[in-house]
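C-alpha cells in:
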C-alpha cells in the first residue's frame, strides 16, 4: 500500500544524506569539460581565487581553441586521478593538465596530494603535458569539517 502524502515523514535534517557519490561528480566533471569550453574558464577562475600557497603564479589561461579533453579515473602506479583534464594554452605555450580530486564524504588517503603531484611530474617528464596543477573539489562543509586536514593541492574549491 502506498502511503498518503500526509503519512510520509522526512528524516531529521541532521540525518539526511545526499545519495550523490564521488563517482557521480567524476562523470559530471568529465562531461562538462568535454561539452563546454566555458566550464574550463569557470574552473580556472574559481581555482585562481582559491589557489594554495604553493602555487606562485596565476593559472595558465586556455588558448582560443583549447582542445580540452577530459578522462575519468586515470590510474597509474602512483594511484588514481579522479578526473584528468588537458587543455592547450598559448599563455605558457603548451599543454596544461589539471589533476582533479573530488571529495564528498571519504577521507584523504595517505600522501594523496603528494601522489597527485608525482603523477603530474611524471606526465610532464613523459611529455604528456608541459605544465600541470592539482585541484581539490569538495563541498564547503567538507573543507570546514576537515579544516587543517586537507592536503596541499594547488587549488581547493
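Residues out:
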Amino acid at each position: 500500500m502506498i502511503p498518503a502524502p500526509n503519512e510520509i515523514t522526512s528524516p531529521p535534517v541532521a540525518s539526511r544524506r545526499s545519495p550523490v557519490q564521488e563517482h557521480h561528480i567524476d562523470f559530471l566533471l568529465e562531461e562538462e569539460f568535454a561539452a563546454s569550453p566555458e566550464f574550463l574558464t569557470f574552473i580556472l577562475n574559481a581555482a585562481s581565487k582559491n589557489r594554495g600557497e604553493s602555487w606562485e603564479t596565476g593559472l595558465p589561461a586556455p588558448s582560443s581553441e583549447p582542445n580540452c579533453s577530459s578522462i575519468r579515473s586515470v590510474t597509474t602506479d602512483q594511484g588514481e586521478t579522479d578526473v584528468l583534464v588537458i587543455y592547450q594554452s598559448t599563455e605558457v605555450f603548451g599543454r596544461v593538465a589539471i589533476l582533479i580530486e573530488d571529495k564528498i564524504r571519504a577521507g584523504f588517503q595517505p600522501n594523496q596530494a603528494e601522489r597527485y603531484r608525482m603523477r603530474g611530474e611524471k606526465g610532464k617528464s613523459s611529455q604528456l603535458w608541459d605544465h600541470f596543477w592539482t585541484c581539490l573539489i569538495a563541498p564547503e562543509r567538507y573543507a570546514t569539517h576537515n579544516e587543517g586536514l586537507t592536503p596541499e593541492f594547488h587549488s581547493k574549491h
